[in-house]
Amino acid sequence: MEGPVYIVSCPDYDHAHEKMEMLLSMMGGIDRFVKPGEKIVLKANLLQPAAPEQAVTTHPMVVAAVARMVKGAGALPVIVDSPGAGYQYTSKTLNTLYRKTGMVDAARAAGAELNFDTTCRAVSFPRGKLIKHFEVINPVTTSDGVIGLCKLKTHTLMSFTGAVKNNFGVVPGLSKPGYHAKLRDKAQFADMLLDLADYVSPRLSLMDAVIGMEGDGPGVAGSPRQVGLLLGSVNPLALDIVASEIIGLRREQNPLLLAAAKRGLTPSRMEEIEVVGAELSKIRVPGYRLPGTVEELGIEKHLTWWQKPLGPWLKDWLSQSPRVAPKKCIGCGICRDSCPADAITIINGRRKAARIDDNQCIRCYCCHELCPEGAVELRRSLMHRLLGIGAGNRSHQEAVRE
After folding, report:
1. pLDDT score for 284
2. Which of 270, 192, 279, 278 is CA-nearest to residue 237?
3. Cβ(292)–Cβ(392) under 8 Å?
4. Which residues contact 51 (CB under 8 A, 6 or more apart)?
5. What average pLDDT does the structure give for the chain?
6. Which one of 251, 283, 315 terminates a domain?
7. Is 304 in the same domain as 166?
8. Strand 352-356 to 344-348 pairing
9. Pairing mode of beta strands 204-214, 159-161
10. Is residue 168 domain-shared with residue 315, that is, in the same domain?
11. Domain count of the chain?
């Protein structure tokens, strides 16, 4: 068995500290992962400035709980992240991010530091399968170790975001679109994420699944969903496999697990993982809504004999398209700045609003992910309906009944 995954129930965030201590105790204690005098990066998921109750970011009470334990072990906890593409990695951005996500309160309560070092550097990673060089924020390169504090969320591009994808936050904000521009295929993007996780090599990955996100996550377009769990593992991939199982995301719907299996990584299947602290059959969440985009994976399986030759040509037609809801859009420009294809402009008419050029759009969904107003919506094409492909946001249980 590779990388046991530990699970404890946590009904609400008021119990976060108590339950996190229980989880770490099961894993051998915090002293197993940090030593006195070390500088430990707490890599939270701080995608965008969003209130904790929106379930977009790692909850501050989870971050504070881990920070207290790191501090108690004699190390220095530093809360770190670079927000999503479209947000400049500046002190001003970080100040807003920390304040709105509750990290200021978390740091104060736990005696942790908030990172304001906005420098970055190019690093070499010769053993990367796809990526040999990364641009990485300096707090990560100068720390003694990293603890990943991820959030259980659905993701329109990658189906799911957890412990592995959390490492994408070590890439500075406006450098992220470059990866989307070059790696337009989901399999390639998954390969990059596996390389990056290998580079960061967090000593420990902990998942906030007290309140997860379902639907068209990972931004404000997703919906909070009670899950009531905290998870931990030294193996981020194992952690993601178990979390995917809990929400009913099948292996063939998860590009990351498919890429891991193609590389021959272990674990890449649920059968290869030991779960400690809970029985999966008792903690699976029924009816968890997946992103509508999951149907784009393995689309060839849904095509009839006469449609199969058209598969490559239909690929773009079968992907969901981002569209701007004019009444919600405030013309802030975050979608424009996050777009790797320069497909978005801000129109100054009677009312400022974004406009997406569908011919230039590469379907990376960065605009949908990062819009703070939820003004970028994903719409199914006419071809989806003509081919009779099922809605992607069905639950796993609904699919199994077919």
Report:
1. 98
2. 270
3. yes
4. 100, 101, 102
5. 91
6. 283
7. no
8. antiparallel
9. unpaired
10. no
11. 2
Rounded to whole angstroms, the Cα distance separating 185 from 176 reads: 15
pLDDT for residue 97: 98
How far, in Å, CA of 176 to CA of 165, rounded? 12
Q: Judge whether 242 and 231 are in contact, CB under 8 Å.
A: yes
Q: Percent of the chain having pLDDT more than 90? A: 83
pLDDT recorded at residue 302: 53
Contact 83, 93 (CB under 8 A): yes
The mean per-residue pLDDT over the stretch 309-333 comes to: 78
pLDDT digits (tens, 9 = 90+) for 197-224: 999 999 999 999 999 999 999 999 999 9
Whichever domain contains 49, its CATH number is 3.40.50
pLDDT band at 293 (very low <50, low <70, confident <90, very high): confident
Tokens linked to 108: 């104060």
Same domain, 75 and 222: yes
Tokens representing 279 are 């029985």
Length of the chain: 402
The reply to whether 144 and 215 lie within a common domain is yes
Using CB atoms within 10 A of its CB, is residue 43 exposed (0-12), middle (13-18) or buried (19+)?
buried
Q: How confident is the model at residue 306 (pLDDT cuts 50, 70, 90)?
A: low
Is the confidence at residue 397, as pLDDT, over 60? Answer: no
Distance CA 381, CA 375 (A): 18
Do 184 and 224 lie in one domain? The reply is yes
CATH code for position 364: 3.30.70.20
Phi then psi dihedrals of residue 170, to 5 deg: -80, -10
Which pLDDT tens digit goes with each residue over 175-197?
999 999 999 899 999 999 999 99
For residues 210 and 163, membership in a common domain is answered with yes
- Which of 283, 315, 342 corresponds to the end of one domain? 283
Same domain, 257 and 305: no
pLDDT grade, residue 7 (50/70/90)? Answer: very high
State the residue range of the domain holding 14: 5-283
Cβ-in-10-Å burial (0-12, 13-18, 19+) of 128 comes to middle
Amino acid at 285: V
**Looking at per-residue confidence, does 241 or 382 come out higher?**
241
Distance of CA 129 to the CA centre of its chain: 21
Region of residue 202 (left: phi > 0; alpha: psi -120 to 50; beta: else): beta
